[in-house]
């Protein structure tokens, strides 16, 4: 039975995806049954073809395809909906998130007595990005942390592990993947963090500019602040029937 599902949102990553999948298999082979779900988010290169050809020799590999590009959060959401495992891990399709970090993420959720933990969020150290991208991310994370008080230094890291049922109870919106620690905490879950390494992009280029991230980020931040203030406070307990 599959325990862990690894979801990879990918758009135009034909040059990176096979190396990433090799790394995932090497990192997770000793950790029980797992599946890998690649969500092709409207690619116009051979991303789907590379994955499809590999599926013949890797029965735990699955491919989902969006009929148009919906963005990273939509791809993650589609993957989680299709996942068989109770624990879901995510990492970016560009190879910048080292797959050998995955066991550090899902192990705390599988440990005895971990039922209160909803998400384990990776936080990058030694980021291998351009100076402008690192500065923009640092500024955005500082504003978000101040506004949401989510205790997360690097919410943009693609390496995360969380409980599937907890994720599916969260409100869906575009770019929600950047706010998962705050959203899980909103629903009463504990949030854990682990430091993870980072690599340069193997090939291709990012699908989003710093300006695009910043513009949508400010709008989303206001929306998430609203969601946190409107959270459900009442918690139900079921009464047992009286005997006699």
From TrEMBL:
Ranges annotated as spanning the membrane: none
Entry keyword Transferase: yes
Classification via InterPro entries: Glyco_trans_2-like, Glycosyltransferase_2, Nucleotide-diphossugar_trans
Source organism, top-level taxon: Bacteria
All residue ranges annotated as the Glycosyltransferase 2-like domain in the record: 5-167
Keywords: Cell membrane, Glycosyltransferase, Lipopolysaccharide biosynthesis, Membrane, Transferase, Transmembrane, Transmembrane helix
CDD domains attached to this UniProt entry: DPM_DPG-synthase_like
UniProt name for this protein: Glycosyltransferase family 2 protein
